[in-house]
TrEMBL record:
Entry GO CC: cytosol
Source organism (scientific name): Streptomyces echinatus
A GO molecular-function annotation: ADP-heptose-lipopolysaccharide heptosyltransferase activity
GO biological process, alphabetically ordered: lipopolysaccharide core region biosynthetic process
Keywords: Glycosyltransferase, Transferase
Protein name: ADP-heptose:LPS heptosyltransferase
CDD domains: GT9_LPS_heptosyltransferase
Domain of life: Bacteria
UniProt entry tagged with the keyword Lyase: no
Amino acid sequence: MRSLVVRLDSFGDVLLAGPAVRAVAARSTHVTLLCGPRGADAARLLPGVDEVLVWEAPWEGFDPPPVTREDVDTLLARLRAGSHDTALILTSFHQSPLPTALLLRLAGVGRIGADSADHPGRLLDVRHRRAAGRHEAEAALDTATAMGFPPPPGDDGRLRVLPPPDTTGLTGHGPYVVLHPGASAPARAWSPHRCAEAVTLLADAGHRVVVTGGPGETALTRRISGDTAVDLGGRTGPRALAGVLRAAEVVISANTGPAHLAAAVGTPVVSLFAPVVPAGRWAPYGVPVILLGDQSAPCADTRALTCPVPGHPCLDEVTGQDVVRAVHKLIQERQS
C-alpha cells in the first residue's frame, strides 16, 4: 500500500507527527510526506518517510501565498503521479483538514482520513474526533489508529529522528547545556537580556553553555553568548542541530521547533512556555520537562504572535536563576 501523510505547517509540527508516520510506515510499502516549506527539514529527519513532497498551502503560515489555479494544478499532478492508496491528514486542534481533503479527492486518492470538528460530507472516508486535552503527538497517533494504522509492536510512541552525526567538532569536549533563544513568534520568546542573564549564571554555576540559532539569528546568539558561551548561531543545519541537542545534558528553549527536536533525541528540556497555546498540547513530549512561565497569564490561549500584554510578563518574570535551578533539577534526575 502506498500511503500519503500530510502535515502542512512548521518544523515542530512535523516532528510531532513522527509517531503517526511510523505507524503508517509499518503497514505501507511506501510513505510520502506532504509538508510545507517550513516543515520540510523536519520531514527529512523522520524515520519511515520514503519521499518528501513540499507545497506551500495558501491556508498555512504567517504569510501564505495567493491561491492560483496553476499552483493547485501542479500539486494535483504530483499527487496523481504518486498513486496513493490512502492518505492521513494531520492538523492541529484549531485547523480544518477539509481544504486538503478536497485536493486529495481531486487527485484521486482512494481513502482519506483526518481529525475533523467540521462535517466533512464526502471529503473524508474516516472522520476521527480527538479526545479533549490530548497532546498533539498523541492526537496524531490516535487519528492514525482510527485509519487502521496502530503503533507497531515495540514502538513507545515517542518522538524520534534518524540518527544524528557526532558534533563534538562544533561543541568541544565535555558536558554542556544548550540555550536556544529564538522562537517562531515574538510572543513565545524569552527576552534577550534574560537569556544573557541565564548564560552568565549557568557559567558561574560551572556549566559549559552552547547557544544555538538559525542563520537569521546570528546577531541574537552573538549578543547572548558574549565571551562566555559557545556561539553556534547559523552554524548548524537540522541534522547537526539534532546532534548538538542529543549530546547536551539539558536544553533550554521556548516553545519552538528545537524544543521538539530535543525531545526527539531524548534530551530533557527546560521549557520557557508562553501560554498563547496550551502547554498540555504543545510542551516537549516524552522526555523530562520543567515548564517555566505563567500559564494563567492574560495572553493564555490567544494564539497571539506578538505579546498582547505590556512587558511580556508570562515569560520575562522568569529569571535566570529560575532556569539554573530547573537545569540542576533535570541533571540530578537524569543522574539518579
